[in-house]
Amino acid sequence: MPEPNKSEKILDALQQLMEEKNIQHISVSDIAAKAGIGKGSIYYYFSSKDAIVDALIKRSYEKPLQTAKTLATQTNISSFTRMAMLFQACQSSSAIFLRQKHKASASAQDLAFLHQKYLNYVISELKPALTEIISQGIANDEIHFDYPAALAEIALIVLAVKLDNSLIPSSTKETADTIRGLIALLEKGTGVPTGALDYLSILK
Fold first, then answer.
1. pLDDT value at 87 more than 70
2. What is this structure's pTM?
């Protein structure tokens, strides 16, 4: 049976190596040596280096994902507040992970590789919880929109791209302006009160 501590050591090892060299130059042998375990043991926990990267990203976003799932059940809190709280949890974890990612002199290929995995995970994992929150807002007549899943995906795509800041590098002001535009569209498009989705404050 897999040992949780060993799998964590493997993830820690990859994270440390990513701060020292490009992903393309990191081998499973490197990860095993850094973790202090045999190379064969790696494959008992992960099928490939790619799987280790996926697991590292998943671990990095474990807290916002749990926050999202919890928020989806807290119907005593307004949908607007829960949406803002979910965005804040996502932003906080993104800042930590992406700061670590840029510590190394990562190549453009590295950044594109991590960017794709980051976007896929954030959007696919947070979308169900955000869709549920929006659906509850619609049921409570707080939000007026016919496509909750589409709205959740649109919001997450914009947020993920801007928070990653690799696909379209932007200044803090440009990012804030884009988020401001997203919030304005969400408020006007769903009939919610102006200021109900105030996410900008967490970007300051």
1. yes
2. 0.75
